[in-house]
Amino acid sequence: MKRIFALILACFSLHSFAEEVSGLYTGLVPVADQSAESRDFAVTQALSQVLIKLTGNSKIMQSTRVQPFLTNPNAFVAGIGFRNLSSVDGDDQTGLEVSFDPQALDQLIRQAQLPVLPSNRPRLLVWIVRDDALQGRGFVGQDFSDAALQSFDRAMKTRGMPYLIPNFDLQDQLSLSVNEAWSLRADLIGPASDRYNTDGWIALRFYTTSNAEVRGAWLYQSSGRRQLNDFRAEPGEEFMTEAVGSLVDSLASSYTYMPQLDTSALQVKINRVANFKDYQAVLSQFKKLELVDSVQLFGVQGDQLTLAIDAEAGAELLHSALVRSGRLQSQTAPGSMLSGRLEFDWISK
Questions:
Q1: pTM of the predicted model, to two decimals?
Q2: How does pLDDT run across 156-202, given as a tens digit for each residue?
Q3: Which end of the chain is more exposed for a tag (fewer CB within 10 A), N or C?
Q4: Residue 91's domain spans which residues?
Q5: From CA 331, how far away is CA 344, in angstroms rounded?
Q6: Same domain flag for 10 and 38
């Protein structure tokens, strides 16, 4: 437990730039027409999108634990509407946007004991390199009209994962060359990424073979973990969706937790709460977290609040989620973590 605590402190600093992601309970699915049959099919597909976003697992719909709850997807729907979409080839498409009831889906996740990827998610710096047979190797991201970057952006938004593209300015050019990024040199990618103060970095490379097959690999470092994997796609297949899918599945495993039907009470002390505005901001910060079931004021002494927290995850995950918010600096001693007592300094803005 002490080793886990030390790892958390090392991985989530005061300057963490995690983002609160919105739209996690909304899915958008292209449809052929506005018939009832198309609508019912799209609702099922949208529910799949949303559960994948909420759990961080692209294979979650294959789980035997979730299948019994999916006999009537419309029971979870809060709102529905058709909207125009722009396809890759520029033709107009119709899409069905479906909003689901957060309370109903949260209850489904608890009852099915599915993993939860909190909405306060790590923002990662992404280096993408393409090896083109005619133009050679180059970074993707300097031109947003690039089809590969647009495909990457859609895939990341579908999974609800925030990211940042480098500036590709002189400092970046001096810190990391195209060939070094292509070689997935973690010893160089890490220092080149430090200037952006993100929660980690991703390097993704790809090329197209003579028979139009796409091959590539990705490497990421986040939450004290480094992972490497390769991918490929047959001619005509959308390779970026598959690449991002496997990447996010691996990445999310470091940030998910299993909700508990019975919550565990934790004691959290917050120092430097100077006024009522700070007090309201502290409570708001806790209420944003899905893993927090309830917050009660236990005591006040000077500028220190003591809160009683009912959490669906343990002290370690609550600790990491609070530090990732960027508003709380940990003062928790390792021994206190073991007994469910956390302490932070509030960072007023």
A1: 0.73
A2: 999 999 999 999 999 999 999 999 999 999 999 999 999 999 999 99
A3: C
A4: 23-112
A5: 5
A6: no
